[in-house]
Amino acid sequence: QVQLVESGGGLVQAGGSLRLSCAASGRSFSGWVMGWFRQAPGKEREFVAAIKWSGGNTSYADPVKGRFSISRDQAKSTVYLQMNNLKPDDTAVYYCAVRRFSWFSRFHDEYDYWGQGTQVTVSS
Question: Are strands 68-73 and 58-60 parallel, antiparallel or unpaired?
C-alpha cells in the first residue's frame, strides 16, 4: 500500500524559504512521477512541480519557476520541494502525489495516491 507523508510546512514571512519533504513508502517508484500540488481556500487544487523518479527530469508551474525546486533522494525514498522567495500568494495546503505513469501530468485527477497535506502560510 502506497503511503505519502508530507512534512516541513509552517509560517514564514514573505521572501523567506521553506523545504517540504514527502516520505514515500509501500513499493518501488521506479518509472513513476512524483508531484507537488497546492490548494488555497476557495480555490481548486493546482499543480506546482513534478519529478520523474527514475530519470530526475522536472516540470514546474509558471508561478513558481525560478523560486521552487523539486528533487528526490532515492535512497531515502523522499521527494523535496525547496521553496525560496515565498510570496503571500503561495499560501496553501501543499500535497504530495504519485502518478503510476512515466510521463508528466499537471492534472490532479491523473495522480493516483496522495498525502494528507501540509500547511504553508506566508505573511506579508
Answer: unpaired
What nine digits make up the cell of 116? 494528507
Arithmetic mean of pLDDT, 84-109:
97
DSSP 53-107: TTT--EEE-GGGTTTEEEEEETTTTEEEEEE-S--GGG-EEEEEEEESSSS----
> What average pLDDT does this structure show over 7-11?
97
- Please provide the DSSP assignment of 35-54 as one string: EEEEE-TTS--EEEEEEETT
Mean pLDDT of 1-29: 97
Distance CA 83, CA 75 (A): 22
